[in-house]
Amino acid sequence: MWSADRPVRSPAPARIPGSAGARQRGFTLIETLVVLVLVSIISIGSFALLDTFNNTDAALEVRAEELRRFSMAMYRIDDDLRQLTLRPVKNAYNGYEPALRGDADELEFTRLGAANLTGEPRGELQRLGYSLGFPEEQDDAVSRALDGEESGALLLRSRWRVLDRAPDSEPVVEPLLMGVDTLNLRYYDADTETWLSQWPPVTARTSLSQVDTSLPRAIEMVLVTRTGGELRRVFPLPRAADSAATGGSSGGDNDGGNDGGDDSQRGGR
Fold it and tell me: Cα dist. 249→61, 90, 99, 206, 243 in Å?
C-alpha cells in the first residue's frame, strides 16, 4: 500500500539513439590508415597513368615531326628530279660534268624551272647536288635546328649560282635532313635492266653527245637515320628527258658549246 506521505517517483526517460545524450563515436586509427592507404594507391596509379599518357603524346609528336621532315625532304628531291634537264656544265678544271652525275653517296644534276624570287641575274637552269656532310662550325641557325636531337650527318642540298663554274665558284649549301647515318644511291639502267652504283656507267663513252643521251630510268635513295631507321624511296625520272635527248643529240657536238656559253653568261652575269 502506498503511504500518503511517500513521494511518487516517475520512471526515467528512455535514451533515444542519436540524441544529444547518446555517446558520440568517430573513426578509429585503423580505419583512417586504411583510407589513407587506399587514397595513396589511387593517387599513385592516376599519376602513373597520366605520366604514361604524356610520354606517349610526346613520343608521337616527335615521331610526327620526324616523318614531316622526311616527307618534306623527299618532296624537295622529287620536285628537283622532275625538272631534270639534259644540260652538261663546265667544271672548274676546264672539263665538263654530265647532265646527271652520281655516286653511291652523292648526286649532282641540272634542273629546269628554278624559281628566281630574289631577282638574281641568272637563267631558269640551276645546278643542284645532294650529299652527306658534317657542319664544321655550327652557326646559331644550325645549332637551334640541332637542339635536342642526336648527333649525326646532315643531308645537304647544294646549289650553284652559275652553271659553268669558275675556279672560285662555291655552292650555297642548306641542311635538308638531320640525324642521318648513311646515304646510299643506286641508278637503274634501262638498257641492261640492272641497278648501278654510279652514273654514267663505267662502260659509257665520254663524248659530250653520249653524256647528253645517257640517263638512268630511276634513282633509288636509301637513308638510314638514327631515329627512323632505314628509309627507302625510288624516284622515276621523266621520260620527256629521254625523248629530248634523242631529238637533240645530233646537234650536241656543234651547238652544245654555244648554247652552254649563252646559258653560262645569263646565269653568271
Answer: 51, 18, 13, 14, 10
